[in-house]
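Record format v2
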Amino acid sequence: MQGLIDLMAETSTQNPERIAEVLADHGVRPTSQRETVYSSLLQKRDHPTADEVFARVREKAPTISLATVYNCLDVLVQHNLVKAVNFERAPTQYCANLAPHAHFHDEEGRTLDIDMPAGMFEQLRGLLPQNFDVKDIEVNFHGRAPKS
Amino acid sequence: MQGLIDLMAETSTQNPERIAEVLADHGVRPTSQRETVYSSLLQKRDHPTADEVFARVREKAPTISLATVYNCLDVLVQHNLVKAVNFERAPTQYCANLAPHAHFHDEEGRTLDIDMPAGMFEQLRGLLPQNFDVKDIEVNFHGRAPKS
DNA sequence: GTTGCGAATTAGAATTATTCTAATTGGGTG
DNA sequence: CACCCAATTAGAATAATTCTAATTCGCAAC
């Protein structure tokens, strides 16, 4: 069921009226700013920073403030609709890809999603004693990706 | 050979006169500040932040500046004597453990080293196409560790 | 329909880790 | 001993993020 909802979330890019629904289903009160921010993340899947999201949503919502963008992103992350990705000391990037995956950070600044087979996370989990409560596993590659 | 040097680096906590040697072997000009900073990291393996290192080394070197601590840490990281560990937006932590390993970030702020079998990094590497040039793989667990 | 309420939004100030700048010091070499 | 370059220093600057306090919004009760 949750899987279905997530799938909807990821495929509802072209269904603006569904976005409010998805937010509500995840316990997020759907305000117009939250819808705009979430919709922007769904439409361009390139791991934007808060500033970049701010620039993008301004076109649709010219009065939105940067603080609100931060607030909306935090709420979305808190409710597992969006993932926050941190790399070194660079600004946090945001990602609407809900499937478990790793990130590759190119030396030129690009960030790519890397699919992870489900078993890999379990193997990693297996490195820890059973009495550890693991909430999240993060895998980051760093290097140089082929030019195209 | 490199492995032997690393082992020396890790076991020379009690051999202050060896620290300069280890730095030099890694291409780092051994200044007294660098020796103090590196020695501090070797002695207390608890992933301190730059500020914490600053506080610790002040006892031995009361005139050292925070900028120098940052400089020394950067040099040590650049020359692979120390690893910089970033987690979420928290201040960078530093780690003199040279063996490949992952990190567990406790919700109370503790950071633990987690041993990784060599094969695990290779498996992770295998998720990427061959034409990716991988410089580093970072694995971070987040959750709650047993109280003691 | 108006009023009231709590949550959300806003603008701008504040915070904080880190980096930068410019001046000083220091250690090794000629 | 003098020189030179790298390292160090103090403090200012930067930049991402968070905080604050005031305003606005949307809905529910009346």
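The two ends of chain A are 37 Å apart (CA to CA).
Chain A has two domains: 2-94, 99-143.
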